[in-house]
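yo

u said u wanted the structure for the complex thing, so here. seqs first:
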Amino acid sequence: MATAQRMVVIGGNAAGMSAASQARRLKRPGELEIVALERGGYASYSACGIPYWIGGDVAAAGDLIARTPEQHRERDIDLRLHTEVTELDPDGCRVRVRDGGGTGQWLGYDHLVIATGARPLRPDLPGIDAPGVHGVQTMDDGRSLLEALERTGTASTRRRAVVVGAGYIGVEMAEALIRRGHRVTVLDRAQEPMTTLDPDMGRLVREAMCRMGIETVTGTAVTAVRTGADGRVRAVATEDAEYEADLVVLGLGVRPETGLARDAGLPLGESGGLLTDLAMRVRGRENVWAGGDCVEVLDLVSGLDRHIALGTHANKHGQVIGTNIGGGYATFPGVVGTAVSKVCDLEIARTGLLESQARSAGLRFVTATIESTSRAGYYPGAAPMRVKMLAEHRTGRLLGVQIVGREGAGKRVDVAAVALSASMTVEQMTFLDLGYAPPFSPLWDPVLVAARKATAAVRRAGTH
Amino acid sequence: MATAQRMVVIGGNAAGMSAASQARRLKRPGELEIVALERGGYASYSACGIPYWIGGDVAAAGDLIARTPEQHRERDIDLRLHTEVTELDPDGCRVRVRDGGGTGQWLGYDHLVIATGARPLRPDLPGIDAPGVHGVQTMDDGRSLLEALERTGTASTRRRAVVVGAGYIGVEMAEALIRRGHRVTVLDRAQEPMTTLDPDMGRLVREAMCRMGIETVTGTAVTAVRTGADGRVRAVATEDAEYEADLVVLGLGVRPETGLARDAGLPLGESGGLLTDLAMRVRGRENVWAGGDCVEVLDLVSGLDRHIALGTHANKHGQVIGTNIGGGYATFPGVVGTAVSKVCDLEIARTGLLESQARSAGLRFVTATIESTSRAGYYPGAAPMRVKMLAEHRTGRLLGVQIVGREGAGKRVDVAAVALSASMTVEQMTFLDLGYAPPFSPLWDPVLVAARKATAAVRRAGTH
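structre next:
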């Protein structure tokens, strides 16, 4: 009988545990031993759900856990929590593992999966490590913030929270803290919140946030976190002003967690993410795989590699890696840059390229922006939405779509996401056979209205 | 100065008036005279909105009117209401027009647009013309039904309504009548309601309708409408039973209104709809155009011509016809058979082919059906939905999708509609970059889960 091969997974979350689960579906324990090493105390949870747990939409931390460690172990996946990998030796096919003190033991592998995720940006500012400054990246972060909220919840005065960063996490946390009864200020260095949108669309988000009572201060950089006599956070200082704070939440985005990979000489892209082939194998390595927030992915619209930290991609990467290690065949074809989010009842979505991204990719383009409604104008609940579309000059190829609106706006971006995958032109999109009935859409779906206008813009520009 | 050409439009609704408006955008009155002839008393209204007007979601008939006759006339479109065309003479380039008594006058044209719409099926049954039996095809139908409801609304006992036909119109009218406080029975000859779905999906609709308190009796044919001593409707009889009714609504579907076209020898398809080329020109005729509910359209999935009466297609046809008559260039590429509807909070959607349609088109296929939710399972309001997918044997090409669920289910069909237009395989769909965040979708969107399962089914069947 042949000895079982060993698959070692670094990182017990979306990409890592999907890879482990999928490989286990294809290979019995006698064929493949699977060891998953997780530095923290939780595995297989929805990090994207943390803001909703904080906000109270999700009652218990346990609801965010897709599969418990026991469930993994029952399926013969040797998941080890609080176990850190301190060194990779890809030439020697081994990793150094520390589960307590000391420098740790070497563990050999036949297949290595690097799924180390991303780490939140934490600027090097005075006071940044003071009690009362919270990240929201991990379950432990979430629990700590929730405990802080519950403590302050008994205070008789309304507490103040400052959120640093107005990206997805920032606006989601603003909503969560409003729901927890805080007065909330969001600070961002950019001119408009949501730099995943063009500024003209981001402005709509800022205006809506202000109407929701979220103080939104943009175009200003945080310079320090001020602490009181008790050492706890008291305010956040910017270049121009100081904002009182009982609580500070950092939502400044993330970077790939690839220190170990870098030290081991594995190939990294411009953003610091691991570079893989489409089978999710680390470039130049036969038996090292990587997926999730620690890799760069191919952007099918620009042809460039990008870092996009999203649970849905991580899960798909894991699926592909597990299939390939399990002896099957799968590839991850790349992304088109779709993201959807909300702040209270405002839905925010994008796919493809922003104007700035299209320019950096060397593309010439036209834009079209339209206003429409989520349902037939005469139907109750018809809510306004704005759709912006980018199309390539001359060819008319769809390059990107951004949507800001109310209920029913966000997921409309999926139509554009599929059209991008299929390299459709905006003129082709004009006649897409989308679902129509008065409770669901105007006669011309807002995405089609935008496509019509973009088509006209392409034609007007066509002679130049 | 050259004399203006004349464009004559028969039918003052979606297709006809879009064609007129678009042609007017491109040609001045001195270049093109536009005459639109409408048999009824209303033009440019949303027929699809009538059930919601009846149900009270839409307050006034006027809300359904996209553009008033005065607005058309201000744009130099000579819209004539209560004006019927009684004969076409395509060889002589003229139509016979009657606006009062008599046989009418001939009106010559340079371009003719046939947009005569569809007529509702009205089976030849005893009592079918009795007072209290209503259609819901036109504004006049709607007004008459609404007046009947308002009269019965003062009755102290809860009134009974029977809806004959459980298709889109039937279920929408069931909802409307429930909202008007009626006890509602829906009768249909088929085994399940919504024959635009496969029976296994239609069953979900029946079960949901029963839970909503709508008595839904299927597999039974209506044999007569029974009248009382006052001559008014009293009950609807089927082969098996009799259902008391103060009011009967017919929702049996429609057929193309092409009697004039047939008499004039214009080419009709199997369903009786006019056959056109992709520019919406009637086949074999240089200057006769047709669009909307009176034509057949190319089904891009099966390659066959089909009759699909939908306002959104009619509007696009009109846009294409008006562009072409106006000297531009446009084509209507065909449809993929998308439709979405709802009955109370149940959303029902489909695109592509049903099992029976795929079989008649000579296609071999596999199916996959999955259960998922509209949002992340842990997020409030996550509602169950069922997605059924058909994929072609061997090639794995997507053939169709059906969705039944609650809020957020219906418009997900659009992803499949775009994928059908792009001839994607279900395996390609598996990795589509759809918008993900817990309030919007599970980690794998339900459509992707169905695509994964369909991919596995294609592979299993692949060796045969």
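Chain B has three domains: 5-119+255-325, 133-252, 345-461. The domain at 5-119+255-325 of chain B is CATH 3.50.50.60 (FAD/NAD(P)-binding domain).
cya
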